[in-house]
Protein 1
Amino acid sequence: MTPLAAQSSSAGFVLVLTALLIDCLTLASANTAQHDVYRITSAHTTRRGWHNGRRNLPFISSSAVSSLVGWEELMLNTRGGSTVEDDEEEQTAAADVDNELDVEESSDDIISSSNETVDETEESQPRNLTFTATCRNDGSAEDPDGIPTRWLDMKKGDREGAKEAFETHLAWRKEFGVDTILERPHPKFDVCKQLAPHYFAGRDPHNNVIFVQRPAHVDFELMRMNNSTIDDLLLHYVYVIQYCWNIMEPAPDAIMTNVVDMRGSSFRQMSNSEYIEFGKRFVSMMSANYPGRSYKTLIINAPTWINVLYKIFKPMLRESTRQKIIILKAGEEQDTALKFYLGDSLPDDLLSNGKPKKDKRDMGTRYYMPVEEREQCAPGPNSEVEFEMREFCKQQLALHNETLQEVNTI
């Protein structure tokens, strides 16, 4: 539910593996493959926020999800969240970005009595939160077709393929107002955090963003209790990823370390039709719109069947992608690997010997308990990164005279 991706399509990679096995069982008794197109309900992106409409937009071909051949195509396109070329040297550290804002002020128009007054004036001015599909140093300015380098890498230099994929991406952004999603109020932030446990834990030793997800604990019953939908959850992921790659880590070549915690997963649970639908739509959205964002993907607390499925799909993956995916079982070896890859940002609750916090509820329901003070932050669901993102969301809500929706757990 990576992402977000790789960005965040890492968790989606696991969801696809799970869903595929279920589909294999049902395909045997089917005479023809269904050709449903997986859609996200269109959202009318007004200044007042997200309002679900009745129109639907197909944004990935049904051939990618309707048959075994389609599954292979989807897996090859996703590649575990990686889209860099095999022969390229993998990025191991995110580039430092100079994001300073030069402000020219005329002494004839503005007279400041002190530096404090200037700071207060700057803070009171609205911030530009419109982020387009291209940015400085992403290769689009130098490209004859305006295509960012990551999209050419995704298609292994196939210019026509990259152009088509990027145009589809631009249409998707326009349909869902992705460029301005951070400007709009997001009252269901806390609700979505509870529906699907995910968080930015901090940064790894290479300064890459760490994104943790628990795909086994997507709670569809809680979703209904809070009048929410899969569409709401998918748009929330877009919000989170847009925040990540535009505010938290805006470098065009920035990458992340994904941790997919399979704790609590069961075959029965993952055969749920809603879960499979969400997994397919999630991985389609992320692989089609956020390519080339993966550094490593750690699948931890992995059940035996994950290893079985991975062996089936391993031959379809590039060697560079195989090197990115690490599957671990709970125990000392897994703890050692987590300490190595995550460093000081390793959350205690990911350790096999970690003790659950007293205020944490059962992992099958809510464990996202937001803190209100920065001093309460610690690596994990309430990292400083998560605190800052939630504060950002609250500030945007305040500008629209709205507040966070309370989560109904009864």
Protein 2
Amino acid sequence: MGKKKDVSAAEKQQIVECLGQGMTTINIAKKLHRDHRTIKKYVADSEHTRVRADKGKLRTLSNRQLCPVKRAAAKMPCHSSRQVFEAAGASNVPRTTRCRVLQRFAAVRKPSCQPPLSTAHKQKRLQWAKQYMKTDFKTVLFTDECRATLDGPDGWSGGWLVDGHPMQTRLWRQQGGGRVMFWAGIMGREIAGPFRIPEGVKMTSIMYVEFLKQHFLPWFKKKNRAFRSKIIFMHDNAPSHAAKNTSASLAAMGIKGDKLMVWPPCSPDLNPIENLWSIIKRSVYNGGRQFTSKQRLWEGILSSCKTIQADTIQNLTIQWTREFRSSFRTRGPMCKCNIT
């Protein structure tokens, strides 16, 4: 004879109410139309849960039924378990069983991201790699703009919570509650900036040049002549960066010719400063932190940058250079993803 089903949540509540009224377990069993032994067992140990008889082994799918599931999973990468099982002709399998079956031979992964590269883009990236293969990247000032919101990334707000402890609440605001734009650069063992971009400013060529004159140029002039003579300035191909007015203004500052790095289009993955943004945001939004004002967010960004050690900044460029050169010699030019 098979085992009877466990007492449901509604039946458990009725048992508690009947016991409060002074009813015996026999009368409760008659009222609920359940076996007397089931009621007695629940009353004796209300926290008892039935142990699976199969000890975790799957009984719903045979090895023959697994074959179409494996074929569907191989043909449909990064699809949900429901989609895979429906393609395999097993649409009535519960979600728990689907996940446990797929865990035998698969794992949840996110697709790797890379910019949309055309053939022309790949050729220009290849030319850039060959041109700067022997460059000492310790002399390159990698720059870029970054955006930070008051709420931070949604995926960073979760974490472990002890049973019984209250769950924290997060503010829900449109557009992340507001944002702060800032500019920074890394070179060798130091950070240039960060410098905050005024709110509401559209970064045109004129505004970009004015921003560099107010923030970058004073930092640049404080350096000695040897430093200024070997620096190579890098920025991407944003419209405000690639404009003729910007190039002429940089030339007036002494940044022209070999001192201005030619950057390939659609190549944010080649800029090591992207790793700096990750370090800053991990510190700023530590523990799912949110901010109530843009000024406090900016203060958090400044304090986070002050805590970054010089060795960390240097390793960003050293590790990037090592991976770039080794990958170019072995599999072709790449950094995180293959250039070609």
Protein 3
Amino acid sequence: MATEDITSSIQANALRQPPKWGPRKKRKLSLISSYIARASLGRTVFALCNYPSLLTNGILRLEQMEEIPLEDFSAEERREHRVFEHLLDSYPGLLERLMNGSEEEILHVGEIIGKGASGARGDDTKSLKSATLDWISPKGAAIQPPLHRNSKIDRGFNHKLTGSLLCPAGLDWNDAETRENLRSGEISVCGDQWPVFLYANYIYDAEDPWCGLLRSRLLTCAYKHVFTSPSSVDKDPKATRSGNARLHGMNCVTTASIAYIATQVRFSLSSSSVFSQTDTSTDSETFYHSLLNLFEDPDESKEVAELLIWWNCQVFPTSSAAKRPISINSALSKIRIKCLATKNAADSNVAIASS
């Protein structure tokens, strides 16, 4: 469901149960607004969001949750509310200020946050447009035919290199008919048809779709470029926090930040000149949400946990989030197993004695 549909459905509920705005006060929210604007929430939590609606709906939903548990809301509404709660957790006192502010002031705060997120996204889009070409260039050779750094008209399926990377997993770019149909639009590519560049070494295994998924070097280069620093792309990470990661207070990778980078790289490879979540040709919103849906699927929790460990090893190797599970045959694992067995035996004896 599109973000606009999510917010409109919640606003429809608002007609039946209008929010109880606090008394209008002279105190403005400009200070907290400017503080939040610097957070660039979209990179790490939720990229494609209508922030004025997020705040308005969040306050409304808090009132509704006095009678309705969060679990009874739709998946999209629950996701939006998690973003709202993350915002409140990040800025102590924000909820009180929002509850005591006027509706106009709350919408103003949302607009300021939205401008900050949009500005950060625009900066990333601009810098990745050129940098991506360096990462996809053949080693020791130039891209042929050449791709322009300041124009994207010859990218996408119009070029053999970007086309091969954007080709949906499962399709054969080497097949002449497939290439022509992708270029002409005869084959329409939806956002949930993931491109092969998401996979390690750009190899997709139809028998094991999780194999190598979201582990390509292109993605890690783009992630480091945005979150650590452009100069860190070709270097081994030595610190847990630097660059934008330091500004965000990050010391581990989030699933939303992976989806954000994948969406940015996909757009940089495309021939579209302007990033828009409603652009039907790139279908960026569907693509971004399809990745979030995968990450939030309880049935995929094991694979997602392993993916995050892998990513943290690439970006924040000294972080506790990058620590791998204890090796099965190690001395430490045997000590842990013996300790657990002793504890279970002791618990069993207590249970027998008390029966």
Protein 4
Amino acid sequence: MMTQEDGDSLRLTKRARPEDNTSTGPGYTIKDADLWFNDGNIILVSAQSTGFRVHRSVLARNAEFFRDMLQLAHPEEDASRVESTVLPLEDSTNDLKVFLNALYTLGYFTPGKEATPYECLASLLRMATKYLCQHLRSEVVAHFAIIYPSKREDLLLNQHLIPPRPADNKDWQHSLEAILIARQNDVHIFLPTAFYLAATLSPSALVPYLPRLQVPDQHRLLTGPMRLTIAAMTRTECWYRTWMSFFDCDIAHCQGSRFRELQRALGASPRFIRLFLEPPPHVHMEKCVTDCEAEDFPYEDMCNLCYESWKTIEIRQYGTLWAALPGYFWLGSWANVQDEPVDTDILG
């Protein structure tokens, strides 16, 4: 909440009568072509001296900061008069334009609807956080949480919401941008998944971002993949050992298939960091399953009972690894990061 002292420091200044729509005014040298309403009663001025003539009622209805400020400032004229007031702000012209468009334009931003440039999302989240526009902040956070979900089965479900790499930034990586945006706005809910996806990038993709990341986050990206890989290798050996003793199968070919799968899994350890981005190992054997009662048992096949026990154990172990994902990147648990008030209807 704002204090009287805050209101005094943001004292609004009067502007000339609104019918003078061609000249500039105190504090601004450019009028925004789209967000300049003749019946507006407050002019927000960006750091680059662009003026936005809007309505106090719209600002007060959507942002707690402006609601408190306008109540404390005690402007001399009432809202029905034709004079406007001028409020200089430190925000960029782009940030103000994006923020005001979200307040005025129906459908300007809808979480989960379409790919939105991360620069736009960063502006929306920054402004919504700064001016206490909770509903907008919640919508932007929900959009990121849809792209970087907390449920493993949703991990690749909404990749279409990730915008293409900007033409002028060949080093752009969406997961690293998401981490930066989250840190700048004190958001935690989508950090584990963003860190996981960033950890799957090549070192050459990470290097340009390291100077922009906080030192603890640099440490997370450098050590997290190793911690996850070790856990995955340990789990793999454990679940294959359990699987091999789980079912007393005496079919020689089936025993050989199980042993080959163990070798294949352990031999793929350098790719363990990508385990959530690729089908589980049992999937590639789906077409090589033979009824254990069959007389003709192909050499590469596995009996249906062994396959089902393998599938069950593997799915359970994948779930265990995902449940521990935040901890591998020193982010605590999923419960620790899921403290952001997000509209659950948006997330489905």
